[in-house]
Design a protein that fits this description.
With about 300 residues, the chain is of the alpha+beta class. An 8-stranded mixed β-sheet has the order 6-5-7-8-9-10-11-12, with helices on both faces. Helices cover about 35% and strands about 25% of the residues. It is built from 8 helices and 17 strands.
């Protein structure tokens, strides 16, 4: 019998322990839908990664265009994006897609994919091996599915809202550094927002003096994934785009971390200003950042 999706059919679900809990057919169907959407996200990210590695391994000369100051795009970005978007459109044609380079499909769907086909383009151009493909899905405006693929290391970071975060099937948990002084932070330099450079340098100087160290790898998505994995204890950057942040933000949250904007709100996809950290140091990060950016949107 087909059950209309508007009905909430109560079902008992048996856990491995032998105990029961009650759930609804609607929630089961939604979980299955998210699982399917995660598989689509992972496959899309891997297809994009295949394009990146094709050019990387061949060592082909890249045609580089400058979108803005220190902001580059190559034929690799475009080809990877085309491959990813084509796969998503063929898999879920009624969904909207927003991608970094040229792909925009907005029909008002409650499902919106955010795609960064090559996060770390400058690294890629200079053959610095830190870059990735970032794919995420918003459902009713909420980050619900994420896949970040690092093709150099063949690492797939994945998350579904309320189901945890994983790296190659291993569950991720954020760090417990013990003290702020023992923390290692990640950051990105504000190449797009140099009018706020003075604010940024205040935070940078403070954290240089008060933590174990700062790393700048050149890929916000990788930095967020490594924060989720407990490699970094926290990350802050400003002036990012939604497709840079969304997947990594879900990974950090599902690994037990805290992700906010510069005013401890939830508008980081809008503002591009993000703080992601272990709950053991997030408040200390925020204290410094709020003092440095009193007028931040």
């Amino acid at each position: 019998m087909k059950v209309p999706v508007s009905f909430d059919l109560i079902l008992p679900i048996r856990y491995h322990s032998g105990t029961f809990c009650w759930t609804t057919m609607k929630s089961v169907e939604m979980d299955n839908t998210k699982d399917r959407l995660l598989r689509i996200a992972i496959e899309a990210a891997k297809r994009g990664g295949d394009v990146l590695m094709k050019y990387w391994e061949n060592g082909e000369r890249l045609d580089v265009d400058e979108k803005g100051k220190n902001d580059y795009v190559t034929q690799v970005d475009r080809e990877a994006e085309k491959e990813i978007v084509s796969f998503i459109h063929s898999s879920v044609p009624d969904h909207d897609v927003v991608a970094e380079e040229f792909s925009r499909k907005k029909s008002g769907s409650r499902y919106v994919w955010l795609i960064d086909p090559l996060d770390g383009t400058t690294n890629y151009i200079h053959r610095f091996p830190v870059f990735c493909v970032s794919v995420s899905l918003l459902i009713d405006g909420e980050i619900s599915v994420a896949a970040v693929f690092d093709p150099i290391r063949n690492d797939i970071f994945q998350a579904v809202k309320d189901k945890g975060a994983h790296l190659n099937q291993k569950k991720l948990t954020v760090s417990h550094p013990g003290s702020f002084g023992r923390a290692v932070l990640a950051t990105g330099f504000p190449f797009r927002e140099q009018h706020r450079l003075e604010n940024y340098l205040k935070t940078f100087e403070h954290f240089v003096r008060t933590t174990s160290g700062i790393r700048r790898a050149g890929s916000a998505a990788i930095d967020l994934c490594y924060t989720a994995a407990g490699i970094f204890d926290g990350f802050w950057e400003m002036g990012l785009s939604s497709w840079d942040i969304a997947a990594g933000a879900l990974l950090v949250r599902e690994a037990g971390g805290i992700v906010t904007d510069f005013h401890e709100g939830n508008r980081f996809l809008e503002t591009g200003d993000v703080v992601a950290a272990s709950p053991f140091i997030h408040a200390e990060l925020m204290k410094v950042i709020r003092e440095a950016y009193p007028d931040s949107d």
